[in-house]
Specification:
It is a single chain. The chain has 180 residues and is of the alpha/beta class. The protein has a seven-stranded mixed beta sheet.
Length: 180
């Protein structure tokens, strides 16, 4: 799959439209929880990298709720970058030159083949100063909880162990999608 061409206007209309999995309200609850757990651990994010920012729901939440936090939103999609104002970056080939207090990677890694995903994980580890929030559905999720009518199923389905093995080189799993 050519991921650069996959994420066009039709993709965003289908998966972020009226019946999409994520919306502003749901991301607001999630972002509030992530920032709350950072605070619990004594981490006050001053910088955030949003990888695969899509419609910019995380970036917009930070802008509205924590305007002093600097957010860099990136996406591989030319459409998303033009429409939502992100920098066009592919985390599999781009390694940020600086680190961020919080890195958000929400619904990205499942689109990458194994080699590109491993490279992306290495780049994410380099970019993360303190906390990573990672959401990636596993093969178990696809078999048990994923709503196929609202989720793009044209992805690589991997086990949780596959991801944990690669992430453990740079992170400790804290739970609820959080990695330290």
């Amino acid at each position: 799959m050519n991921t650069r061409d996959h994420f066009d206007a039709g993709y965003y209309q289908r998966f972020y439209g009226r019946n999409g999995v994520h919306d502003r309200r749901r991301i607001a609850h999630l972002a509030t929880g992530v920032v709350g757990l950072c605070a619990w651990w004594g981490i006050k994010p001053r910088s955030v990298l949003d990888i695969g920012a899509g419609p910019g729901l995380w970036r917009d939440w930070f802008r509205d709720n924590h305007p002093s936090i600097k957010v860099l939103s990136t996406d591989v999609s030319e459409y998303a970058c033009k429409k939502y104002g992100h920098e066009r970056r592919d985390i599999a080939t781009w390694c940020p030159t600086r680190s961020f207090d919080l890195v958000v990677c929400h619904g990205v890694l499942q689109y990458l083949d194994d080699t590109a995903c491993e490279q992306a994980i290495d780049h994410i580890a380099s970019a993360t100063r303190h906390v990573l929030y990672l959401e990636v559905p596993t093969s178990h999720d696809f078999a048990t909880v994923v709503d196929s009518s609202a989720t793009d199923m044209n992805v690589h389905q991997r086990t949780g162990d596959w991801y944990r093995k690669r992430l453990s080189a740079g992170f400790t799993q804290a739970g609820a999608g959080l990695w330290i």
